[in-house]
Amino acid sequence: MFMHNKRLQYTVRVAEPNPVLASLLLEQFGGPDGELAAAMRYFTQGLAEDDPGRKDLLLDIATEELSHLEVIGSIVAMLNKGAKGQLAEAAMSEADLYMSLTAGGDSHTQAILYGGGPALTNSSGVPWTAAYVDSRGDPGCDLRSNIAAESRAKIIYERLINITDDPGIKDALGFLMTREVAHQKSFEKALYAMEPNFPPGKLPGKPEFTDVYYNMSQGDGDMSGPWNAGENWEVVSERAEQVAVDGGDGTASVKLPHSDLKILEQMAMRTESAPTGDPITGADLGAGPGAGATTPVTH
Questions:
Q1: Do the beta carbons of residue 203 and residue 184 sit within 8 Å?
Q2: Predicted confidence band at 91 (pLDDT cuts at 50, 70, 90)?
Q3: pLDDT value at 157 more than 90
Q4: What is the DSSP secondary structure assignment for residue 38, as one 8-state letter?
Q5: How far is CA 182 from CA 64, 66, 142, 171, 179, in A?
């Protein structure tokens, strides 16, 4: 059960309207790393979670993300207040109103389609989609994904803070950015409260491949570090040892019924390339000066 409190989790103070900034802030309203995506990700995970501790954590944070959605939506609405009134009452000249709405971002779409209200889109006007919710139903996998999501959201908030000089907006965005840090800490603690927690899922990796590092990109810039060197790793650099690592011949095969095999042989014969001969092509006939010869010319 949800119960709404009319007071925001954090006070919104906007110095002046700015439709362009409002359109950029929509990235955290209806974008892939925004508050709605986070709320839906954690809410659906929480509903399916059997562990009481993780369930409580996920539903707590999901509900807080809805509060953050309300803060961002309120900032967007305040930034659009001037444009909303001007559009509704036609108080400005057509040219001035047009210029104010097309100064940048997606502000014109917000104003015309949504009347200045916060739309469930990202900053480019792309509608929100449930495809942003990338849960897999495994706590080890989902908690790692949640940690990454909070990290991405923090970076987006940093960038939004850097593009505004409105002190009230900077303050509110700073709060939201900081809560991403707190959530990341909670998810990290929840992940490491499971022992073992790596790798995600139940099945272990194949031991003959788990500690192998394949040095596939070779040349200037080769580097060694704890990610590929030391007692935890067997480094394979020889090209011949990087193929058919299972001991097979490295080809793809399938056992086909005789009837299918016969049909495939017929198709192969029908579509076989002729290794001899050099037919005249359309490129030969249409080639102009400087095109280069495609077929030997005989005189």
A1: no
A2: very low
A3: yes
A4: H
A5: 12, 16, 17, 17, 5
pLDDT band at 280 (very low <50, low <70, confident <90, very high): confident
Q: Which helix H or strand E contains 235, and what residues bound it?
A: strand 234-236
Percent of the chain at pLDDT > 70 equals 86
- Encoding tokens for residue 7? 């007071």
Residues forming CATH 1.20.1260.10 domain(s) in the chain:
19-192
* Helix residue spans in the chain (DSSP H): 19-25, 27-30, 35-48, 52-79, 81-89, 94-101, 107-114, 139-162, 167-192, 207-210, 258-270, 282-286
| 196-211 CB burial, b ≥16 within 10 A, e <16 | eeeebeeeeeeeeeee
Residue 154 tokens, joined:
């923090």
Q: Which CATH number fits domain 19-192: 1.20.1260.10, 3.90.550.10, 3.40.50.720, 2.60.450.10?
A: 1.20.1260.10
* Higher-pLDDT residue of 104, 14: 14
Question: CB-side exposure of 139: number of CA atoms within 13 Å?
Answer: 23
Spatial contact of 215 and 243, defined as CB atoms under 8 Å apart: no
Tell me the average pLDDT of the chain: 89
Check whether 232 has a pLDDT greater than 70: yes
Mean pLDDT, range 151-156, rounded to an integer: 98
